[in-house]
Amino acid sequence: MKELFGKIKASLVERGPERIEELTELINTNILPPEKISSDEVHIRAMYIVSDRVNSAGGRFPAEDHQELARLLVDSPVLVGHRKDSLPIARNFHAETVQRGNERWIKVYFYWLKKANGAENLKNNIDGGIYKEGSISFVFGFPECGICGGDIRNCEHRPFVNYRKDGEDVEAYFNYRKIFKVLETSLVYRGAVHDTSLTGELFTPLELSDNETPHDRISEKKVIRITSLDILDRKHRYLVRSAYESLPVILKKEDDGITLSCLNGMVLGGHRIDEFLKKLPIAANDGRFEGRLIGFRGKERRPVSELIDHIEGRASSVRRMELRLCGIGSRDEDPVPDLAAVRSCSAEGIELAEIVARMRTRLGAEIEDPESGYRYLYCTEQRLSMTVIDSRRNGSGFDYDLFACDPLREKTVTGTFHSPREYNPGDCLEFHYDRIICKDSGAIVSGLRLHDYYGRYRTADMIDLGGTEDSDHAVLEIVQSGSEHYCTIASTGGTLSYRLRHFDVSLYEKSRRFLAESVSDRDPASAVKVVSKNIMKIEKHGRGLKILLGDDSTINICPAIIGGRPRYLFYRIRGEE
Questions:
Q1: Cα(14)–Cα(135) distance, integer angstroms
Q2: How far apart are CA 313 and CA 311, in angstroms?
Q3: Which of these, 57, 77, 61, lies nearest to 4 by C-alpha position?
Q4: Gyration radius of the chain's alpha carbons
Q5: 365-368 and 237-242: which strand pairing?
Q6: Among 274, 16, 295, which Cα is nearest to 133's?
Q7: What span, in angstroms and rounded, lies between the C-alpha atoms of 69 and 74?
Q8: Dihedral through CA 36, CA 41, CA 42, CA 43, nearest 10?
Q9: 306 and 496 in contact (C-beta within 8 Å)?
Q10: Residue 516 in contact with residue 498, Cβ under 8 Å?
Q11: Which helix (H) or strand (E) holds 262?
Q12: Which CATH number fits domain 214-354: 3.30.470.20, 3.10.20.740, 3.30.470.30, 3.30.110.70?
């Protein structure tokens, strides 16, 4: 197993109608082609690319990780036979988790242009069954042994060999954990994942188990956070619930026991969950119920991140957990009367705003539209869930590149954030923010302040691009001209320039102080830009300045007398300091 050491690249291949408009909108939203495309310009097909079954390499994609893998598949290229010496033939733009028989699958959608060379041949070969299998190439960090849970590169177990476990013979395999990136998917003659297939079926039939109703599947839709009720159709009747700082979960009770899982299918386990489930008063009422798992310290509800730490056995401020189920409007209609219920009420028309105002907490109100299946979190604060897409070590912490996408409108926004804590690509962080600024290169969020860490439990956001790059926009820039560095502060109140002595950008990031002096002329046109930050606020203190930047850091320019001459001390303070 020595080939599994290090960051691992895996290519899983054995060697040798009606939804078209919606899918086209996803292409424009997720891929952002230079020119917006229309549905009559593209061919769209789908691949059942991976399942939760052990493949011919001995590996398995656990169902609880499918949602994250589906996200990583978006915007990856489609190749032929994993060959990197030719350009892609198509591009993946959307993926979703589906059920096929007793297996969980990821279905990924890809497109190519009708006017491209060979476009009709590719379409005909897929539809005619000539091209019918797919494969995935990806990078992952941890092959988790299915027998002992350790690193299969180091333990005694080997894939496809039987071992005794709990008195039974169990065949060993490993789970693909810590998937960092999807490199590409490919059309292949034989995939390592059994029963992959290509399809022209562009919708996923609603398959319900014996104990499910269509209402149960509503809970699988992503929650969209909104800051205005104007988006809602007042002709619909909505179910309004109080929103708690909690983990949305599904409680499932069957003859063989009780399970508690997240909405993405990940089953919650561990000693604390096991003990918690034993104490739940649900002797009757078998079925599947949605609820909210809340962590408390005394009577105070704690953030989701603290609840997750408590569940997973880490240090946490949470001292007890409480489960509240989502009823449908009155206490008599709650699915399990012995358990507490989330406060809820139905509303429509002009009464909706009144009901929402009465039901909402400091976190907001949950609003469900049973007719469309959409779910919303109404929140009056400016919050945004952003996904980590890249990171760089900076001093004692890390600089993170972040990305967010509006699921209903063609809007995306990027941002940066510095933190001493280490996060991984794909982690979802919850922020307060000051404003979102429209620029030619796209929308940028400024003034990010970390609120919570949601991991897999994210919301999506209606993105309000209210801020624009206009006369109110202030910028701080540091440029280099020859051996000299200059700092320029440009705002509606005018422009200030300073010459910085012996400036070094790495020391600047570490809050080192630099000697500065005021200069009357701006930096030369040939200067190279070293630092550029949006300014959120400027405070004057005599001759000094305190400048709050969009990345939540502060620049101090303090007056000083050195050698009998007026100078300044120039330095940066990070938000955590």
A1: 9
A2: 6
A3: 57
A4: 27
A5: antiparallel
A6: 16
A7: 9
A8: 170
A9: no
A10: yes
A11: strand 257-262
A12: 3.30.470.30
Q: What is the spatial order of strands in the sheet that 223-226 belongs to?
A: 344-348, 237-242, 365-368, 375-378, 223-226, 460-461
Task: Give 351's contacts (C-beta < 8 A, 6+ positions apart).
Answer: none
Pick left, alpha or beta for residue 118 (phi over 0 → left; psi -120 to 50 → alpha; otherwise beta). Answer: left
10 Å CB burial of residue 313 (0-12, 13-18, 19+) is exposed
Where do the structural domains in the chain lie, given as residue ranges?
A: 2-199, 214-354, 383-468, 474-573
Distance CA 366, CA 88 (A): 42
Positive or negative, the CA dihedral 379, 537, 468, 454 is negative
Ordered alpha helix ranges (H), 117-158 = 119-127
DSSP class per residue in 460-516: EE-----EESSTT-EEEEEEEETTEEEEEEEETTEEEEEEETT--HHHHHTT--EEE
Lowest mean pLDDT among 2-6, 40-44, 252-256: 2-6
Q: What is the DSSP string of 356-423?
A: HHHH--SS-EEEE-TTT--EEEE-SS-EEEEEEEEEEEETTEEEEEEEEE-SSSS-EEEEEEEESS--
Beta pairing, strands 287-297 & 528-541: unpaired
Phi, psi of 105 (to 5 degrees): -125, 160
Would you state the structure tokens that stand for residue 571, as one six-digit string?
Answer: 């330095």
**pLDDT per position as a tens digit, 264-297:** 667 888 888 888 888 887 655 567 788 889 999 9
82: left (phi over 0), alpha (psi -120 to 50) or beta: left
**Residue pair 96/23 in contact by the 8 Å Cβ criterion:** no
Q: To the nearest 10°, the Cα dihedral for 253, 257, 263, 266?
A: -170
pLDDT tens digits, one per residue of 396-441: 888 888 887 765 555 678 888 888 888 887 777 888 887 777 765 5
Residues paired with residue 58 on neighbouring β-strands, in sequence order: none
d(CA 428, CA 264): 14
Question: Could you tell me the sign of the dihedral formed by the alpha carbons of 197, 198, 200, 201, in that order?
Answer: positive
